[in-house]
Amino acid sequence: MKKDKDYFKFIENIRDTISPSIISEISPSYLSEPRGLYWNESLHIIKPRSTKEVSDCLRLATKHKIGVVPWSGGTGLVGGQIASDKYHVTLSLEKMNKIRNFSSINQSIEVEAGVILESVHEFVGKKSFLFPLSMASKGSCCIGGNLATNAGGIGVLKYGNARDLCLGLEVVLADGSIINDIKTLKKDNTGYDLKNLFIGSEGSLGIITRAVLRLFPALENRIVAFFGVPNFNSALKSYIEISRRFGQSLQAFELISDEGLKFLEETKMTQSVVKENRSQWYLLVELGFNSNALEQEVFETLDDLYNREIILDVILGDTESKARKLWKMREDIPEANKKVGAISSHDISLPLENMESFINKSLYEIKKINRFLRVNCFGHMGDGNLHFNIFPPNKESNSRYMDIKPKLVEIINNNCKRLEGSFSAEHGVGRLKVKDLKQYCDPGKFDVMCQIKKAFDPLALLNPGVILRQHTHEK
Ligand SMILES: Cc1cc2nc3c(=O)[nH]c(=O)nc-3n(C[C@H](O)[C@H](O)[C@H](O)COP(=O)(O)OP(=O)(O)OC[C@H]3O[C@@H](n4cnc5c(N)ncnc54)[C@H](O)[C@@H]3O)c2cc1C
């Protein structure tokens, strides 16, 4: 078969012309992804050590027409890092893991794509700076993957998502050419903004090899508070009041449902801090300051909200260890969800004013299918981003309910569309939501996306099958 021949010729060429040590048979740690929905079909993995080697690999891939699937930390939740064809090679950036130019004057740092997010936190933390992108996968995900997915996480409310935290980028295109846009500038209106085209393109337009990240002076104090609310409308009211009073000091406003706390208890992940007086919804709020001056005002605001019955009992994370414990509870929820086993998981965003209608309408329609289905709705409420995950009835396995999954997906996606939301807030499209993109995207926007893909990657070799299916390199 011609395809095998081309593929093995490509592998041989990589070994002969670059180095035998950069390619090997793929090992088990690259075969699966966090949700267990996809299995990596790649036979080999390439681990380049420099931008030049990435460029050489892509030049050879173009010559032999071989699909290349970039891999950074492998924590992506939409299957984007998983090859769907054994003749598509996986390319991991893990050997490109150097931290290069830290500048306290520019408040920036240059890193290679394979640097783990938490390593950036540790490095800049020692210099009293903050890189605010953060999420539960921070110990494994890498900067290249964060930018390729335009990751969100828990700091978006104040600092924006990965896109807002990137000043410069180096990218290798499908034909091996290199775009060097490594800059530390906050302002640069010199033509088309290519950097922002690559960010969020999930490896379908180019491979990110280096980036300059934006830093902020570390904050000296933070206040973390956890409290229940009598209903969802009170959650919204408390957001409006806290964000109006504290503006930019509000760093995170996270929604947790009682179902989420029950999952933590059921899976023995974390002991819930709520023992009695449970409510349906809770909030985890973080404010950051550089002095103690605002502390008193925060306590007075929480008191005021409590006295007006907008919020219920408050648990304060007033020491670092108590604050960490509260955050751990929030960050363990995805792992608890995984253990319980969802039928369908959704990462959606909505205008805040439509969030309650979305929740009520979706719950009503889901319960009409089966009133015992369980929903764990949680997430970055302040950003308008909810994780809306649907589970089988208690003590039952999700495998028995997979036949209703398409109906559940339709309910969520249709309600998002009707209420002016998005079916993918921060995880991307990957392989999981390719059909949804075609169905729900504005046709004009979709058409331009196809043209951009063709212009950057005419042979459809970069991450084939991700985002846009119809331009996949034909088998
Ligand atoms: C427990 C848990 C919690 C999470 N929480 C959040 C959250 O709060 N917010 C959020 O946004 N995400 C979250 N995620 C998802 C995931 O961590 C992010 O999408 C992360 O940015 C992926 O980074 P990665 O290095 O693991 O990328 P990978 O999974 O390796 O790749 C992701 C995508 O980017 C492409 N890619 C990877 N590297 C490059 C590169 N150098 N150049 C071009 N393309 C590349 C891949 O082909 C793939 O399409 C979570 C995941 C887990 C498991």
Total number of beta strands: 18
Listed once per kind, the bound small molecules are: flavin-adenine dinucleotide
Spans where pLDDT lies below 50 across 5 or more residues: none
Main β-sheet, in a few words? 5 strands, antiparallel
Number of helices: 15
Class by helix and strand content? alpha+beta
What is the radius of gyration?
Answer: 23 Å
Proportion of beta-strand residues = 15-25%
What CATH calls the topology of the largest domain is: Uridine Diphospho-n-acetylenolpyruvylglucosamine Reductase, domain 3
Q: Order of strands across the widest beta sheet?
A: 5-6-10-8-9
Number of domains: 4
Backbone shape: globular
CATH architecture assignment name of the largest domain: 2-Layer Sandwich
- C-alpha end-to-end distance: 12 Å
User: Quaternary status of these chains?
Assistant: single chain
Provide the fold topology.
Blueprint: H1 2-17, E1 23-25, E2 44-46, H2 51-64, E3 68-71, E4 89-92, E5 99-103, E6 108-112, H3 117-125, E7 129-130, H4 143-148, H5 156-159, E8 166-172, E9 178-181, H6 194-198, E10 207-214, E11 216-217, E12 221-229, H7 232-246, E13 250-257, H8 258-266, E14 281-289, H9 295-307, E15 314-317, H10 320-331, H11 333-340, E16 344-349, H12 355-369, E17 374-378, E18 385-391, H13 405-418, H14 434-440, H15 443-456
Parallel strand pairs: 2-4, 3-4
Antiparallel strand pairs: 1-2, 5-6, 6-10, 7-11, 8-9, 8-10, 12-14, 12-15, 13-14, 16-18, 17-18
